[in-house]
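Table S2 (text version). Query chain:
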Amino acid sequence: MKLSQLHIDTVSFIVPAMNEEATLETLFRGISEQMEILGHNFEVLFIDDGSSDRTWSEMERLATLNPGIVRSFRFRCNMGKADALSLGYEKAIGDVVITMDADLQDDPQEIPRFLSKLQEGYGIVTGHKKKRFDPWHKVLPSRVFNTILSKLVGVKLHDHNCGFKAYRREVAKQLPMYGEMHRMVPALASFEGYETAELIVQHHPRAFGKSKYGVKRILSGLFDMVTISFLKSYRNRPMHFFGRIALLAGFTAGGFLIAGLLTALLGHALSLFLTVIGMMSLMAALLSIGMGLQMELGVYRAMLEDHTVPVAQTAGEKSFQPRVHREDVSLVA
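Corresponding structure-token output:
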């Protein structure tokens, strides 16, 4: 469902960085030039994710030279991009939040297109690096990942993992960021009813530093797809998942225990083995039920603390005044 027209007064830019000392000033200058053309207020939130070079010194310098525009944050150690984005979402004050990588592969000149697309009613606009300047061993796994993820979650995108994204404020504030979930942002947003648009963006070769990509990220991506698939179907009803496992294990346990009893009556040597397998299956069933109940309790407590439902629009809510007399009701314009 498309959202209402967006009034943009301030745009917040979130830039996580690790060992990117040579790129920050150039990126900030590019953002500043575009914001001056557009006439919007803006802020830039730099987040140092455990750098070992002079990245933090550069962030401090930019914050000192640009008070009221640049804010910089430094983690004590490398926490990962999801935690950096989570901090940025929390601190951002803009009507729109834009995330960009610090390596200069994202082009600030694309910013007006992102803002224009948001105005069409989307909750998120994400970039699509159609022509990439990355090695094949990075591009190929990325394409496989995007194809599988699109089918799993029903959000058809070419580039789920593109770091260049624009969000409406309410979307950014609502997204849970942990682990490697920054790669699943469109999927997480879709669970709350927000639509994502995709824009083909220019992708520049990396000019400084080196890529943080490796085999570890491929493996973590596979695990994250399992997580997001589970969240899609069972995030509010985990007992349905564990209950099915318990039911299967329970039937298996019953079958093995009956078989063990019958073979024992016949004096067969397999009776002990079948009985042990049956008892193990029964324990698995009970454990699954226990895990399901525990997760249901967690969901219930979370709902009590913050029970929000995704209402997109209202009519008559702001001006509502309760009427006492039934004859006041009007059904004709």
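Notes on Table S2: The chain has two domains: 10-234, 238-304. The chain has a mean pLDDT of 82.
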